[in-house]
Design goal:
The chain is of the alpha+beta class. The chain is built from 2 helices and 12 strands. 22% of the residues are buried.
Length: 170
């Protein structure tokens, strides 16, 4: 009976390992996301479509400059430590990140970028076209996809009805 169990295990273990290796978890040392970039974002938040340029110079310095629709053109947000510098059409203001709801689009977007790019949150999963990561920005789960060069190509936060596609600008 023990020999039969060992034979069955000897057959099952390789088969299971073959099927479970379709996606490969890779360690951060094997994949490093681009930490400095300028990308264009086309996003949808619960049916409202907008565009912005996202510029990341460091963990502390991320800027989102809205370009579309026309009503948002000229509105920008820049991280400044634990606060946001907001430029609403030429009128500067500053808000602490804890003054905005954790589930707000602004907090989720910026915290997701920081988590996925600058913190060691675990493993990335290699796919055919690049790498994926799932992070939790406060209480919101966010799926992030990177291309093979390390640029963010998409970000999805279904819990808050947000999705975005990114195009590398260099």
């Amino acid at each position: 009976m023990k020999k039969l169990q060992l034979c069955v295990l000897a057959i099952i273990i390789p088969v299971v390992s073959i099927f479970s290796s379709c996606e490969k978890n890779i360690f951060e040392k094997e994949f490093v996301p681009r930490q400095f970039f300028s990308i264009h974002m086309t996003a949808d938040k619960e049916g409202t479509v907008f565009e912005a340029d996202v510029i990341c110079s460091s963990y502390e310095d991320i800027k989102i400059a809205f370009t579309s629709p026309q009503e948002l053109s000229g509105f920008s947000v820049e991280t400044n430590g634990d606060s946001y510098s907001i430029n609403a059409f030429g009128v500067p203001d500053e808000l602490k990140s804890n003054e905005i709801k954790d589930t707000s689009l602004l907090n989720v977007l910026i915290r997701s970028i920081k988590l996925a790019i600058f913190t060691n949150h675990g493993t990335f999963t290699e796919t055919e076209n690049g790498v994926t990561a799932t992070v939790t920005a406060e209480s919101v789960n966010v799926d992030i996809v990177f291309d093979k060069e390390g640029y963010i190509t998409s970000l999805k936060a279904p819990d808050i009805g947000f999705s975005a596609e990114f195009q590398n600008q260099g």
